[in-house]
Amino acid sequence: MKIMANNLKRQYELYAAEFDQKALDVIHSGWYVLGEEVSSFEREFADWIGSRYCVGLGSGLDALWISFRLLGIGPGDEVIVSSNAYIACVMGITMNGAAPVFVDSDRYNNIDASLIEAAVTPRTKAILAVHLFGQCCDMDEIIRIAEKYDLKVVEDCAQAHGNHWKGKTAGTFGTIGCFSFYPTKGCGAFGDAGAIVTDDEELAQKFRVFRNYGSEKKYYNSVVGTNSRLDELQAGLLRVRLSHMEELNAERNRLAARYSDSVNNPLIQIPQVRPGADSVWHQYVIRCSQREALIRYLNQREIGSIIHYPIPPYLSEAYAYLGIPKGSFPYTEKAADEVLSLPMYNGMTEEEQNAVISALNEFQGFSG
């Protein structure tokens, strides 16, 4: 039995009839860009998150870089971000000419909020809170620091569709919440798609204008914008997915609980959830000091796995110009050497999960 790290077809099959009908409805409508499906999705997603406004965009990266652009953050400014964030988070900062200021991660794989205040300088303009792997950062401390130093807070919720910090939904703490709907995400589209949420009406309108070539009225351009429009087909399919998100997130929590209850190999460290947070388990990320041996062992059993992520952004070739040496963020670098994402997807069968659990518990490391 071959078990994929992520099975997108299985997730489609859960609601295939609804997806198929929605796709046909959109195709037959004759309207494919910025129509009723987009506006309906924006209203429904904002309601689900608990925000006043949602603006659909072309991707999660677009959500990030446009956010910093519209907040007026650029050359000479600094944005604090976790050192283990996905590289797109850092790109959202640097595409505007601003400088990322990295802070080490903690045992929950998110930014160590206790280290943020020491990283604030007169050039700091914002904190980017990246809710990695499906659970929230310590938003109490992040908001406290932001208010003390008059900083903007942007949340990257690409992997956190519907999780909470002390009962409040990710994406509603800061000025802007950024979402990716890439197919692997909890509320995944069937291609690239993204959005922002905000309670600021004026800011939401700026996003609507900016995403459409800087035009509020056709052929009248008030600013130099971009083309980043959530299309009607993706919006329609996202509406189907959104209508099932509570049950989809509940299923992922059941899968995660079963992993946590059943994996008992001392060579494997299971993930922990920060007190005060819950998780939507975008990934179930274990740690193993013998990771390469474990990957080979799982491959022999035809069990897929993924490393999220093997290279911290500041050590990537793309950001070599920052001149940040290896060893600068020890917790992040140790995690990069040890983390491994197990198979985790909606529609995963008990037989498949049993096979993964058995393999993990039978792993004996280098001596096995």
Descriptive report:
With 368 residues, the chain is an alpha/beta fold. It folds into 2 domains: 8-242, Aspartate Aminotransferase, domain 2 (3-Layer(aba) Sandwich), CATH 3.40.640.10; 245-367, Aspartate Aminotransferase, domain 1. Helix content is 37%, strand content 15%. The chain is built from 12 helices and 13 strands. The chain has a 7-stranded mixed β-sheet with strand order 1-9-8-5-4-2-3, sandwiched between helices. A two-stranded antiparallel ribbon has the order 6-7. A hairpin with a 2-residue loop joins strand 10 and strand 11. It is globular and about 65 Å long.
How is this structure best summarized?
This protein is 37% helix and 15% strand.
Largest sheet: 7 strands, mixed
For the biggest β-sheet, the strand order reads 1-9-8-5-4-2-3
Termini separation (Å)? 22 Å
CATH topology of the largest domain: Aspartate Aminotransferase, domain 2
Taken together, the total number of domains comes to 2
CATH architecture annotation name of the largest domain: 3-Layer(aba) Sandwich
Low-confidence spans: none
Give the mean pLDDT: 97
Query: What is the H level of CATH, i.e. the homologous superfamily of the largest domain?
Result: Type I PLP-dependent aspartate aminotransferase-like (Major domain)
Rg over C-alpha atoms, rounded to the nearest angstrom: 21 Å
Fraction of residues in β-strands: 5-15%
SSE sequence, one letter per element:
HHHEHEHEEHEEEEEHEEHHEHHEH
**Helix/strand-derived class?**
alpha/beta
What's the CATH C level of the largest domain? Alpha Beta
Mass-distribution shape: globular
Number of helices in the DSSP assignment? 12
Helix content: 25-40%
